[in-house]
Amino acid sequence: MGHLLITNWCERKTVVFPSSQTMTGRVYKLHSTLELPLEDLREYLEDPLLPEGVADIELTRRNNTLIIRAISDDDSIGKYTPTAQLKASVTENRVYEDEPETEPGKPPRSNTRPKWGSFDDEEEEIESELVEYACLKGDRETVLQNTALQYEMFEVLCEIAERSEKGVLTAVAATDGTLEAVRIVDGDRQPASVAVTEDPAGDGEDSGVDWRNNEFI
Question: How many independent structural domains does the chain possess?
């Protein structure tokens, strides 16, 4: 039995398996730290690029939890079959406006409060507002749930990652027998690679720690 390992992110490549080991539409490993303004996410979901097999995408909010669910266009998928969904949390972040540029010949503004009596040097407070952010953070079981249309919703997740202000999405997925590594950092898709390795050798009785005779226990 082999293991899937993401070895480095120096180049993107695919590994093609023999037909007897064909894997279609499945996500094997996924980790996400994505964040983007909730308004941007809603705007994207108003007119998303729908993968094949997905008729629509439904967004539901329950308190501070978002569920982004795939609606199948295939009548053969039962009415009560849970389709793949993305799960996100909503947090509020304070966003500050850009600080005005310093006039030539004047020292840069200081973040410290002015000393008593120096009213002429008082600085204007930088305006800010609370902005709701959608955070898709965690591993596959946390961010991407359910099996039906799993790979299709993974494609939607990649689209969201490319619109995220910050965060990283890394994944190992397969479709039509081809294994692929994905890495998207701060909205930028980057090259990635994946390696397939055999089980490590030398797992005999002599390997490991002898807990019974360990003098440090």
Answer: 1
